[in-house]
Amino acid sequence: MPREVRVLNVAEKPSVAREITRHLGGAGVQRRDAHGMHVSEFPFNLRGTNCRMTVSAVRGHLIGHDFGPELKSWSSCTPASLFTAPMQRHILPDCQDIDRNLKQLSRQADWLVLWLDCDREGEAIAFEVIDVCQQAAGGRLQVFRAVFSALTREDLLRACATLRAPDPRLADAVEARSEIDLRCGAAFTRWMSLRYQPMFPELGRPRHLWHRSGVCTPAGEASAKSSVSLYRRTIQE
Description:
The protein is an alpha/beta fold.
């Protein structure tokens, strides 16, 4: 008798994982906690195959993007260089428990079914889950995408019957937008700060010391108004 195929099902949030378990699991559900995350298991027939379904969840995005530590200091490079500087991917600090849970479950799984929201953002999160799980499983997981619009039994059963491959184009669109936002935001923020900070030296002092430097005196007020006028003239150049 062939062994059961072990299927790891990953939902976008714990509430979705609970509904999947409730509608598909029936009376044979076993529940446990792993790395602070809820995990449920039950037998199920998927794609004509007797399977052991394992259901868990993420909490939105797992992976963040940032510049390397060598670029953390604002004096380490010009703002313009941030448009071409290499970027690093990393597990978000508040997702370390989810990362450990997925890796542990992936090592025991044969298939991976992604129950993320059916939009671009959900597809991007799906590929983050794929990266984490395939790394732990050595790339051997067979990956499927569940497409659903409601958390009813009928919709979830229909999703199980119409599994498809995840769409990398949707994930790439989100990745591109995220990278552009980060590069433009970081470069512009550094440029603005480095350009205008010397014009407002009082802003570099702690707020509770402003009265000592004259910022809260009539003379300080006049100086502040002069600085604002200078700023307005500068941005109009």
